[in-house]
Amino acid sequence: MKRIIGVRRDVVPDPAPDVSDVSARERLKAYNAGEWSMVGIRAVAEIEAADMRETITSAGVWNVPSDSPEHYFQDVYREELESLCRTLFELGFAEAEIARACGPYYPAPTFGREDDRRGTVADRRRTMNNGAPG
What share of residues in the chain are helix, strand, coil (percent, to 5)? Predict the structure, then answer.
């Protein structure tokens, strides 16, 4: 049996920060003094499959100033969460389980977009049933 244990936002130090575009002298001085840093924002899922626990992580968005407004962190997290949800879907987790785990940020409508090569669940069922409604 496989299941999603939980999903969370992960904000971690950027291992290779790039401050070359920081032009304001005071801002760069504050960076060098440790008043702010660059971080990465990822969506992380803990799953259980075949009696093993695994961590699935989105690619992340890096080089984000740590003192960015919270709404920016939330926007980036939503984008990363969409990517993570697609991965969970591709791993065979049911959309209902993904929705429960991802909570209010669950991006369900994107699974059925026309540009989704796999199509909607109903489209896949029709294909499996030789065109009959699933």
Answer: 40, 25, 35
